[in-house]
Write a structure and sequence with these properties.
Length: 137
């Protein structure tokens, strides 16, 4: 099942960030497609590790670009929301590792909602930081 479909309105006007966002959406969709009772526990952890790794690299890039473009209005809240996802994934990994897993469907739903809310609240406003000449369509 495709969890999130890339839409042109997801573009933030910066090609590297758009490529990262597309990659994160791909990972989430793969994660969602692999859900099921017969899947080995290791696979679930591997998905979370991969998501954590890709998300943390993306956040570092996005935060550096925001700073370079003087994005300041709500940088701290934006940064904190990135950390919230990373902390939540870490917590999910610990829970799963110690035999206290949440429902995997609920986890993917939580991540999907985080993505949509984060984009609507923060990433969609990145457009305002980039000069028109830098925008890719
Ligand atoms: Fe962001
Ligand atoms: Fe982002």
């Amino acid at each position: 099942m495709m969890l999130i479909e890339w839409k042109p309105e997801f573009s933030v006007g910066e090609p590297m960030l758009d490529a990262d966002h597309r990659h994160l959406i791909e990972l989430l969709n793969r994660f969602s497609e692999d859900l099921g009772p017969t899947r080995p526990k290791a696979t679930f952890i591997e998905h979370l590790v991969q998501l954590y790794s890709s998300a943390s690299k993306h956040f570092a890039r996005e935060e550096a670009i925001m700073q370079a473009h003087g994005y300041s209005s709500d940088y701290v809240k934006h940064y904190a929301d990135h950390q919230r996802l990373l902390n939540e994934i870490t917590f999910m990994m610990f829970e799963h590792q110690y035999g206290l897993p949440k429902d995997e469907g609920a986890i993917t739903e939580w991540i999907k909602n985080w993505f949509h809310n984060h984009h609507a609240t923060y990433d969609a406003r990145l457009h305002l930081s980039f000069p028109k000449a830098d925008c890719a369509s």
